[in-house]
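Problem statement: downstream parser choked on a complex file, so we are re-checking the raw output for the uridine-diphosphate-N-acetylglucosamine run. The parser issue turned out to be on our end (a line-ending mismatch), but while we're here, posting the original submission so the record is complete.
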Amino acid sequence: MQLAHIILAAGKGTRMKSRLPKVLHPILDQPMILYSVDTSVRVTGRKPVLVIGHAADQVRETVGDRADYVLQQEQLGTGHAVMVAMPAVRDWADAVLVTYGDMPLLRAETLRHLVQTHADTQSTITMLSVILDDPHGYGRVLRDDAGQVIGVVEEVDATPEQRKIRELNAGIYCFDAAWLDEHLPRIQPSPIKGEYYLPELIGMAVAEGRRVTAIPVDDPQEVVGINTRVHLAEATQIMQRRINEQWMLAGVTMTDPETVYIGPRVQLAQDVVIHPQTTLYGETTVGEGTEIGPQSYILASTIGRNCHIRHSVVEYAVLEDDVDVGPFAHLRKGAHLAQGVHMGNFGEVKNSYLGPGTKMGHFSYVGDAEIGANVNIGAGTITCNYDGVRKNKTIIEDDVFIGSDTLLVAPVRVGRGAKTGAGSVVTRDIPPYTLAYGVPAKPKRTLSSDSES
Ligand code: UD1
Ligand code: CA
């Protein structure tokens, strides 16, 4: 069966009270629409068709080539929205899924079950319903005495009796594609709102003696659309819990999962430990046995095995195995710490490589630098990488000892095995195995390279 998926996302989302279109509001680190798009791909194996309208360019820019798009110029109702999307699917689809872009919690398994039921029951329309104590805002599912679905009535059009019905239309459907295509143009605008209602099709199918099946969802949370920032916060919490539970079941320890936030694209190995108030976002991967937190923020970074990161911020960085960071370290874009690096309190590293075993214990800034193996970077060392115009490079070779409070005025190179005295201002290259100090630093004597041989 060729399965198409149309996601309706043209509406404004007025109740969000935001400049940002509703479907671009993030759940954890990802715009909510991308959850729907990802789920769609998992269910159908292909890109969904997004119906966009309000802030269409912004939505298209964010989602990119992960979806195909249809523009609905005017939001004339859910039936109209699906109708404008039909040209994108009618030539090839046997069945058409329809969902909304504001339901990020909808699971792939739930959609698969819908599609499977659709096939098994040979229904013309298979839909999800939801049973809620408060039916406000939803279309009511109408059933006959035998329990067969006979239609959906919108709240505004419902009689007081119908309004009491608690089985509600979730807005998630699987349609026979040819039947859908033929019947969409027959929807008449609602006399009250003037909109073309998609659920009108249910009554039409029933009138033609076709089968319509409604499946109540197990978990109402999955199908509650996000309309306000209160819903957004609730959905974020549910997603957070889902992701955390998935990782805990996969062998990750979280000492306080309520305060741990992990984005959907993060990958964690077994025996990772995450301490309280820690966030891992973007395409971050963490190797076995690594401990992160408390109070750490990791973005789009690759972290090796048996690392330890405490009270620190790590963004777009690479940490090899056995790296120890923090408390209060900041690793910025392009920081690469090789195996066994120790980076202690109040350090900042940007666009720099620190070789294996290098230590940078206290209060240092390293930017645009290439640092070899087993270098000691004394407290308060600064690479003066920016001269006001250009970013310049600092090179420190293996086994160098940088004395406390050294300023390295880039571009500059410190040769292998060299040493700087405390408080040096290094403006010129230091040859290998040379002690230099002073302001500006001058070579004072040659050091033995015995330790090295
Ligand atoms: C709809 C259903 C209702 C159901 C409820 C579940 C209709 C007429 N009613 O009502 O039975 O209980 O969903 O949430 O379908 N959209 C477009 N273009 C449009 C209109 C809407 O893309 O022209 C999109 C919106 O962005 C939104 C979704 O479709 O994501 C639902 O539209 P909305 O107007 O919120 O429908 P409801 O009133 O919630
Ligand atoms: Ca809605």
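For whoever reads this later: The chain has a mean pLDDT of 97.
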